[in-house]
Amino acid sequence: xxxxxxxxxxxxxxxxxxxxxxNLLRLxxxxxxxxxxxxxxxxxxxKPVEAFGLTFKNPVGLAxxxxxxCMAIRGLDSLGFGxxxxxxxxxxxxxxxxxxxxxxLLEDQAIINRLGFPSxxxxxxxxxxxxxxxxxxxxxxxxFIPVSKRHLKPAIEKGKAILGINLGKNKDTxxxxxxxxxxxxxxxxxRYADYLTINVSxxxxxxxxxLQAHDALESLLTNIHQQRLIEEKQLERRxxxxxxxxxxxxxxxxxxxxxxxxxxxMDGIIVTNTTLSREGLRSNNKSETGxxxxxxxxxxSEEVLYQTIKRVNGxxxxxxxxxxxxxxxxxxxxxxxxxxxxLYTGLIxxxxxxxxxxxxxx
Length: 362
Known about the structure:
Number of strands: 13
Low-confidence stretches: 135-158
CATH architecture: Alpha-Beta Barrel
């Protein structure tokens, strides 16, 4: 059935299709019967996983980039994900790069995007999340605080998806001042998130990837860790922080970045973001600039995953993303040692049933 839907969707410009599907999921989340029906259609077996001190109902998550402004987390939750990562969020609103900026590569089952962190900004996303934390009448008049709120646990109800929030700096913020952007976002979103991700690896914000260099990354993450300790004391719970890395790092650069992550007491690593490589592409859009995702990223992402797991040596969990297009791809990443996996482009080409199909195959 999705083949027919995809045929229609692929007649529409890629970014407009993205907006259309996101709005449909937003509406699904607002209409309880629709949410229940979709949940039943995509219902999958539970496959609990422990990571970062959290219990995920299954290891399959949605990668950051799809729901940048927290518009549709309830609708996305109906698709069966074990976790949903929203963002990338920037402190101030910014439009991102000029359109067109998202391209399908049909022959390669890939996407190139140069969106550049389009974001409605921190205040907007906080308003989207605030309804999940409004006081109930029991709290307001009788002082009763439900268990789910006693430590300001995240927005999505028990038994639903874990909520991750992906953080990035504004385009106009220099790398020398980037720490201030990340610290501000940490202060704003620690109370909402199950975990936070520090994005220093998007290829679409000029100079951002330079923050992956050992000294710059260690300095950034050390400051983040110190602020995290303050937030944890106030919230009386852990605030796990992950770091997302690029697939385009050399072996030595990757090892140095991992060393910085470990020395700064981060809780996990996500590998990988999109790539600037264009090796082996056939599609007409292959010359477009931006980050490449989908099937062509598979080999490189697996190589980085292998090296990361080897270097980490069990100290912290690793999340694999990039080029996961089939249940076989997903199982391979988990067998290689990834604790969790994330999807994005695979959903575009194979539909939301991919989550259920992966879980049934495990």
